[in-house]
Amino acid sequence: MIKQKYFPEWTIIIPVMAWIFYFADAVFSSGYYSLFLTLLLLGSVLAGVYHSEVIAHRLGEPFGTLLLAFAITVIEVGLIISIMIGTKGLGTITLARDTVFAAVMIILTGIIGICIVIGSLRYREQTFTLQGVSTALITLTAVVVFMLILPNYTVSHEGGEYTSFQLFFIALVSLALYLGFTMVQTMRHRSFFISPQNKLLADQKELSNNNELSRKKMFASCFMLILCLGIVVLIAKLLSKDVEHMVLSMGAPKSIVGVIIAGIVLLPEGLAAFRASKNDQIQTSLNLAFGSALASIGLSIPAIAIISVISGIRMTLGIDIKSTVLLVLSLFIITVSLATGKTNIMQGVVLVGIFLIYLFVTVVP
């Protein structure tokens, strides 16, 4: 009898190597070494996805997707705050805005669009629970407007910035909305976030999941997930100067740095969502996407805002007219596309088209 492996070796070896070579950067610092660290960063992200899915398997839906969204948010907050505090200059005044706006656009148009296309190519149509998606959309729309659009129209401070009092109050309101959504998702209306074809078997699946996965394995995965998240933040911060130098040397806008950070942060979420869509679980893909978007703006920005107020670091949140048009268009298209409880390939193609336009006008403003 062949004994099943506790974990695949790479999910342990790569994060451990990443920690070791992170501390060796002062000795081997070079362009090739930075490339090697980048590969370890990506490997640690993939390992983090694996361990988060192991934990999610035990917790069941929608707790699993909520856990992954929270894990991604920890990476995002840690990365943005570490860069802002490390630099402490006007060069990072728009970093949080650029990163969060990029994350929202990548999720709404890129991740959801590709998930719909993948699912439609294989299954033609996929169904989801409309109540859960509509609940997530109305919450996300409100928080997005509070954080990224409203700052442009307040008069207490110019340049798309809130005053410290405004920032603190709106951060608390946004945090309350996110926590309210989390309570709806996990307790009051949990059934809204379970795939229609799985609702009848949800309880049986949850019981079987709990029996199949030992507590020791889950706690080991929790420990490995913390290691993965920690090293992702540290290596990403270490490489941020190289990324910024590369962007500036290419003559590209500095906002590209936010897009790159958001892309790294959302890689685990995207891979998990694509895999779910391929397995005819579009509900899980949407839970991951909307949960991550809400956590990215409803949890990340309040955390960053509180720290910026305490440390005295300025933070611009208001996006420009071009970004506002793209954001409003994305919210409108996705609201109309998901209004029927079913997906088809054209909805995904349109969202991917908006995503490509967003990337193009960011590089070529």
UniProtKB/TrEMBL annotation:
Pfam families named in the record: Na_Ca_ex
UniProt name for this protein: Ionic transporter y4hA
Transmembrane intervals: 7-24, 30-51, 63-87, 99-121, 128-150, 162-181, 218-236, 256-274, 286-313, 319-338, 345-364
One MF term in the entry's GO annotations: sodium:proton antiporter activity
Natural source organism: Chryseobacterium nematophagum
InterPro entries (UniProt xref): Alkaline_pH_Ca-Antiporter, NaCa_Exmemb, NCX_ion-bd_dom_sf
Localization per record: Membrane
Domain Sodium/calcium exchanger membrane region intervals: 35-186, 222-363
Entry keyword set: Membrane, Transmembrane, Transmembrane helix
GO cellular component: plasma membrane
Its membrane topology: Multi-pass membrane protein
